[in-house]
Design a protein that fits this description.
This protein is α+β, with helices and mostly antiparallel strands. The chain has a single domain, classed as Trna Endonuclease, Chain: A, domain 1, CATH 3.40.1350. Helix content is about 20%, strand content about 30%. The protein contains 5 helices and 11 strands. The chain has helices spanning about 35-40, 45-60, 165-170, 180-185, 195-205; strands at about 20-25, 30, 75-80, 85-95, 110, 115-120, 125-130, 135-140, 160-165, 175-180, 190. The strands form 4 sheets. A 5-stranded mixed β-sheet has the order 3-4-8-9-11. The protein has a two-stranded antiparallel ribbon with strand order 1-2. Strands 5-10 form a two-stranded antiparallel ribbon. The longest helix has 15 residues, at about 45-60. It is globular.
Length: about 210
């Protein structure tokens, strides 16, 4: 019989680091967590960092920037909005990449369903489904490098599309959606980060 007892509980980070925590070699501090962050996460135009930064932007719009992102969560953000608990999936795309391009990329976003993973038991659900209530698609819309490289820190370079998960579910198991399809699905286009909370509320109650 397989032993299913959890001997080592899930190790979940629930408090943000300050950046001042030392990296210790014996009793000597050779660096800080802030040094590591600068070394590892400065290239916000890479696909992985752009995606994580977009999650942070959505969290900022919902006043959740002081929480801690959970790397293996079933969805990216959980927003307690009054009596509502809204589960949000954030996806990102861009026209310009960090590699040389012969033409601009055609933005598209993953909508692939998944099996929810339980961090406490290290087990997956049997059912394959989309886990969130609402999707926020974040587009870094910069199309030119003339005079201004893509700068994700400039929020004028972003636009957002908000869609209830139920609309995606009607399409079945399709794993990607592009801008034309988002328009056909009547995703709400949001040009300012300040507009996201109300758009997410509308999508949740749709």
């Amino acid at each position: 019989m397989q032993n299913t007892e959890i001997k080592y509980p899930a190790n979940v980070c629930e408090q943000q680091k300050t950046g001042d925590e030392p990296v210790l070699l014996g009793n000597e501090a050779i660096a800080t967590v802030s040094d590591y962050w600068r070394w590892a996460h400065s290239d916000l135009n890479s696909n992985a960092e752009r995606g994580k930064f977009a999650e942070f932007l959505v969290a900022c719009s919902l006043d959740l920037k002081h929480e801690v992102s959970q790397e293996w969560g079933a969805y990216d953000i959980c927003w307690a909005d009054g009596e509502d608990e809204i589960k949000i999936e954030v996806k990102t795309s861009a026209y310009l990449q960090i590699w040389g391009q012969k033409k601009l990329s055609s933005p598209s976003f993953s909508t692939r369903p998944s099996r929810k993973w339980n961090i406490e038991t290290n087990e997956y659900e049997e059912v394959v489904r989309r886990q969130a209530d609402v999707y926020v698609f974040c587009l870094e819309k910069q199309r030119t490098q003339e005079g201004c490289n893509p700068n994700p820190l400039d929020l004028a370079q972003w636009e957002f599309y908000v869609l209830p998960t139920s609309v995606l579910d009607k399409r079945g198991m399709q794993g990607r959606v592009d801008l034309a399809q988002l328009d056909a699905l009547k995703a709400e286009k949001v040009l300012s980060l300040r507009g996201l909370p109300d758009a997410i509320r509308r999508a949740f109650h749709a």
